UniProtKB/TrEMBL annotation:
Gene3D superfamilies: MetI-like (1.10.3720.10). It is a multi-pass membrane protein. The chain crosses the membrane at residues 42-64, 76-96, 166-186, 214-237. This is ABC transporter permease.
Length: 256
């Protein structure tokens, strides 16, 4: 038993050196690949979150103030997207969506296009994010004191101007917690794009692990990178929330 412990003690520095070499930025280390994958993941998450936010604002407005047809369409969209597993949606939208776009281009006499993985990833995850953002923003709008909306209508404010000047600023403090969760989910959902071969962080980690057989080292490193991204996001989200709640009483006081 003591002899086994001595062997492990002797091999421990070698294992540590091996892990450092594998995670080095310069070859033969794979650190640059992991950082490139992290950059791709952040780009997709930012694009998908922005697209989802735009869809969510339009969807919430349509659900609350749209015609019956618009409300029904938004209800079908949000129900379908939230009911189907995200991995299935990604596969469906990525492959079927690309095929439908190219078929439509052929029908109108245009050449087919090869959609980049970055654009496809942003589009697919943006549609998924939009369904959840719709409900988050709809709930935040309903939390606005109705007197503010009624006052804007009484002064004859057009719907578009009321959205910019009254609704969006007033609903922001109520929407930030839910939107913050959606942002963190977007950073994690980028890992699902590995199934379609896009080189985000998880795909780069899998390739590094398969080449070196050091799966534990690389997946721990990927987990640390995701954790650092989450911690940094929490700092930014906290500052945005304090900015959005400026002039409002602290939460502790509102609960009294």
């Amino acid at each position: 038993m003591r002899r086994t412990t001595d062997i492990e003690h002797l091999l421990n520095p070698l294992l540590q050196t091996s892990a450092v070499e594998l995670l080095a930025i310069s070859p033969p280390g794979w650190g640059a690949n992991l950082l490139r994958g992290l950059t791709n993941s952040i780009q997709i998450a930012v694009g998908a979150f922005g697209l989802g936010l735009a869809i969510g604002i339009a969807g919430a407005w349509g659900k609350l103030y749209g015609s019956p047809v618009v409300r029904d369409l938004m209800e079908i969209y949000t129900t379908f997207v939230r009911a189907v597993p995200e991995l299935v949606l990604i596969l469906l939208l990525y492959y079927a969506g690309t095929d439908l776009i190219n078929r439509a281009l052929e029908q109108f006499g245009y050449a087919t296009v090869d959609i980049s993985g970055l654009a496809a990833g942003i589009g697919v995850l943006g549609i998924v994010q939009g369904a959840y953002a719709t409900e988050v923003i709809r709930g935040a709008i309903l939390a606005i004191p109705q007197g503010q909306i009624e006052a804007a209508r009484a002064y004859g404010m057009p719907p578009g101007k009321m959205l910019r000047r009254i609704t969006l600023p007033a609903m922001l403090p109520f929407a930030i917690p839910g939107l913050a969760n959606l942002w963190l989910i977007a950073t994690k959902d980028t890992a699902l794009l590995a199934v379609v071969g896009f080189n985000e962080l998880t795909q780069e980690t899998r390739q590094a692990g398969a080449t070196t057989k050091a799966y534990f080292t690389f997946f721990v490193a990927a987990g640390v990178l995701y954790l650092l991204l989450t911690l940094f996001s929490n700092v930014i989200i906290g500052r945005i929330e304090r900015w959005a709640r400026r002039g409002m009483p602290p939460i502790a006081e509102t609960g009294r």
